[in-house]
Amino acid sequence: MAVRAEGPFRLTDGRAIWLRPLRAEDATLLVDLCKRLSPQSARRRFLRYPLPCDRREAERLADVDQVRRVALAVVADPAADGPILGVGRFHADGSDGRAELALVVADEYQHVGLGRLLLKRLCREAVRRRLRMFEGYVLYDNAPMLRLLRTSGQPLQVHWDGGDVLTIQLGVAAA
Ligand SMILES: CC(C)(COP(=O)(O)OP(=O)(O)OC[C@H]1O[C@@H](n2cnc3c(N)ncnc32)[C@H](O)[C@@H]1OP(=O)(O)O)[C@@H](O)C(=O)NCCC(=O)NCCS
Questions:
Q1: Using one digit for the tens of pLDDT, what is the confidence trace for 89-135?
Q2: Core vs surface per residue 12-33: b (16+ CB within 10 A) or e
Q3: Given 3.30.1330.40, 3.40.640.10, 3.40.630.30, 3.30.1330.10, which CATH number is that of 6-131?
């Protein structure tokens, strides 16, 4: 099931971006994105800091098949080799209708609607694949992500088993 480039999308501050499938050749751009993240964003995405931002991890993250492991890259121009401004992904490694969700938006592009756009597109791709739920790990003080999930219009469950990481379950349905 192919995922095509889509856009342009206008963000709330007027900037335009495109969404395109992430590909194996993007590993270098993922290392660059990782290095540009603020400590807070890096910790919120990867639940640890400092990050090594190493090539091996980037190659693992770029290794998606766009079928069970789906990842969308945010770019300013899909025809150019410019930086990646954000990534939304889900990995459905089991066969129980669940997939692990992760989002990251470059600091200078946060809070202008990109997270919401990525989540909406990922939900659509998940529905196409007959998935029923996203799961993910969110730091308890990650207010932007929790607010984004709560206002997504999809049923949300948040579990806390101690510690500073919450487990979230978000139902996915066609919006
Ligand atoms: C979480 C994250 C993906 C949200 O992306 P974003 O592009 O900033 O989100 P949006 O602009 O679409 O905002 C979505 C909603 O989240 C909330 N939100 C976003 N930024 C916020 C902030 N700084 N403070 C409070 N709420 C915020 C708002 O409710 C917003 O909706 P509204 O402004 O339309 O009312 C982004 O902040 C990020 O990449 N953070 C670091 C990585 C991370 O936390 N990943 C999640 C764990 S996998």
A1: 999 988 899 999 999 999 999 999 999 999 999 999 999 999 999 99
A2: eeebebbbbbbeeebbebbbeb
A3: 3.40.630.30
Ligand 1 centroid distance, CA of 40 (Å): 13
Please indicate whether residue 110, judged by its CB atom, sits closer than 6 Å to ligand 1: yes
Q: What is the pTM of this model?
A: 0.95
CB neighbour list of residue 107: distance below 8 Å, 6 or more residues apart: 36, 37, 38, 41
Query: What is the CA(119)–ligand 1 centre distance, in A?
Result: 11
Nearest C-alpha to atom 33 of ligand 1 is from which residue? 111
CA 123 to chain centre: 11
Query: What are 25-36's pLDDT values in tens digits?
Result: 999 999 999 999
Find out whether the beta carbon of 85 lies less than 6 Å from any atom of ligand 1: no
